[in-house]
């Protein structure tokens, strides 16, 4: 735990995620999908879809003011596929002129006993949800349009309730540190999706106080 906390505070995790987010109401989603099919790569074979179950785990050390958060995700449509364990750091928001949010990011494939492993390490489930949607690629950029569903009880993936009447839209690139030109490319791509959706950098820490 001390080693992981030190790595987090020292920002030595090698990968960074450049991220822009927005939302679009349900009736306009199909128009956005049509535009993305025209702008993105390799859509001749059909739009890629996903149906994922994500679980958010937290652990808090004795000297930590904020917990360490890990995200465990599995593909419900592909039960034989590996689970994914993700760590997402706090966003770097010091440079207000930077076009995108930037945060530390690491993603690894794991065996299907990931949840048991996290519980035995002392992590506790904070919340979980289902993400259903569409995925596009434009060069190194990944664009997802997803509906967030609440689960009626832990582990129950039936009788799902949509969180809202809109879709979450995310534009992201995972790359080594220091490739800020990617952020400019993302900003230019995001401009092509206006006025359907406004993609912006969002400070998630502010949302916790709403």
UniProtKB/TrEMBL annotation:
Cell location: Nucleus
Keywords: Activator, Nucleus, Transcription, Transcription regulation
UniProt GO cellular component terms: core mediator complex; mediator complex
Entries under Gene3D superfamilies matching the protein: Hypothetical Protein Pfu-838710-001
Any one biological process term the GO annotation gives: termination of RNA polymerase II transcription
Top-rank lineage group of the source organism: Eukaryota
One Pfam short name: Med18
Function: Component of the Mediator complex, a coactivator involved in the regulated transcription of nearly all RNA polymerase II-dependent genes. Mediator functions as a bridge to convey information from gene-specific regulatory proteins to the basal RNA polymerase II transcription machinery. Mediator is recruited to promoters by direct interactions with regulatory proteins and serves as a scaffold for the assembly of a functional preinitiation complex with RNA polymerase II and the general transcription factors.
TM spans (from-to): none
Family matches, as InterPro entries: Mediator_Med18
Protein name according to UniProt: Mediator of RNA polymerase II transcription subunit 18
GO molecular function: transcription coregulator activity
Family under the similarity heading: Belongs to the Mediator complex subunit 18 family.
Subunit structure: Component of the Mediator complex.
Lineage of source species: Eukaryota, Metazoa, Ecdysozoa, Arthropoda, Myriapoda
Principal location listed in the UniProt entry: nucleus
């Amino acid at each position: 735990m001390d080693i992981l906390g030190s790595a987090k505070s020292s920002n030595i995790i090698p990968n960074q995620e450049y991220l822009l987010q927005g939302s679009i109401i349900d009736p306009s989603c199909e128009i956005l999908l049509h535009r993305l099919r025209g702008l993105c790569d390799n859509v001749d074979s059909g739009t890629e879809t996903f149906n994922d179950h994500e679980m958010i785990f937290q652990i808090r050390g004795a000297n930590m003011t904020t917990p360490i958060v890990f995200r465990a995700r599995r593909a419900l449509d592909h039960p034989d596929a590996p689970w994914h364990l993700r760590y997402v750091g706090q966003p770097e928001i010091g440079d207000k002129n930077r076009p995108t949010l930037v945060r530390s990011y690491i993603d690894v494939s794991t065996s299907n006993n990931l949840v048991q492993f996290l519980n035995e390490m002392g992590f506790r489930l904070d919340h979980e949800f289902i993400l259903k949607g569409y995925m596009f690629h434009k060069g190194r950029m990944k664009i997802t349009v997803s509906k967030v569903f609440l689960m009626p009880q832990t582990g129950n993936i039936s009788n799902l309730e949509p969180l809202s009447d809109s879709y979450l839209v995310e534009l992201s690139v995972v790359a080594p540190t220091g490739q800020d030109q990617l952020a400019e490319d993302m900003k230019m791509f995001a401009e092509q999706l206006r006025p359907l959706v406004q993609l912006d950098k969002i400070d998630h820490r502010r949302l916790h106080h709403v």
